[in-house]
Amino acid sequence: QVQLVESGGGSVQAGRSLRLSCAGFGYRYKTFCIAWFRQAPGKEREGVASINREDFTTYADSVKGRFTISVDNVKNTLFLQIDGLKPEDTAMYYCAGSSRFYACPEWSSDSWSAAFDWGQGTQVTVSS
After folding, report:
1. Full pLDDT tens readout for the chain, 128 residues
2. Running DSSP on this structure, what letter comes out for residue 107?
């Protein structure tokens, strides 16, 4: 089982930027799907951005144009660049990864819970 560790969260004012990192996935020579999810208090977990071995990316409509997902395959690290932060971006951000998928599943798929490794999360708090 892969151990994923997120970092880079913090408390910032609206309009600022953050860069989240997720280390430890180790999929250097394998097919993979890696993604960022977030969960705000009292809300369901939602998929934010995903990327696969072919650098195909998918974003939730609510973050398009502000969030950028990328991966450093040499350092085994996933990134999420967040620009123009809004108070509604406040949430715990998690990374999830699997080497079992060529194409990332739909956000609603049960595969995320059943077949992916998850990190412990990093908190992002945005004040207005």
Report:
1. 778 999 999 999 999 999 999 999 887 778 899 999 999 999 999 999 999 999 999 999 999 999 999 998 888 899 999 999 999 999 999 999 999 998 999 999 999 999 999 999 999 999 99
2. T
Contact 34, 95 (CB under 8 A): yes
User: Any bridge partners for residue 70, and if so which?
Assistant: 79
Residue 102 sits at φ, ψ, to 5 deg, of: -80, -45
CA–CA dist 18, 7 (Å, integer): 11
CA geometry: angle at 113 spanning 53 and 109, to 5°? 70
> How would you classify residue 112: left for phi > 0, otherwise alpha for psi between -120 and 50, otherwise beta?
alpha
**Coarse DSSP helix, strand, coil percentages of the chain, rounded to the nearest 5 percent:** 10, 45, 45
